[in-house]
Amino acid sequence: MNRLIKIISILLILHPFASQVYASEEITANIYMHRAGTKILSGVVNVATGWMELPKNIGLWNQKDENILEGTAEGILWGLVHTASRTASGAIDLVTFWIPTFPIPEPLFVFDNFSKESEYHAFRMGR
Prior knowledge:
The protein is mostly helical. The chain has 3 helices and 2 strands, in the order αααββ. The protein has a domain at 35-120.
């Protein structure tokens, strides 16, 4: 009888913490689903629109250089690099959507900020 009272006492003491564990699991599941969904969406969009980095970079480099020929040449070269990078990062995001990290490119989509040069950060857990 004494053992039964001890077990019941322990269960009564631990009972208030059970709802917190459930809430924590629910929040974690919501974060996981949000990040996985974001990675799938960004992966599909970045694979499909990676080519838009070429005209974006031509415009960016023409704004930086006074000589239009140099700006266009640098824009084409950097545009090709960023096109390959955004398309590859989109493919990687598609393949690794189940890992709860943020998508690789920044800005998330090429058309989010046309005046900012793209950056790529692999396997970020926080922003």
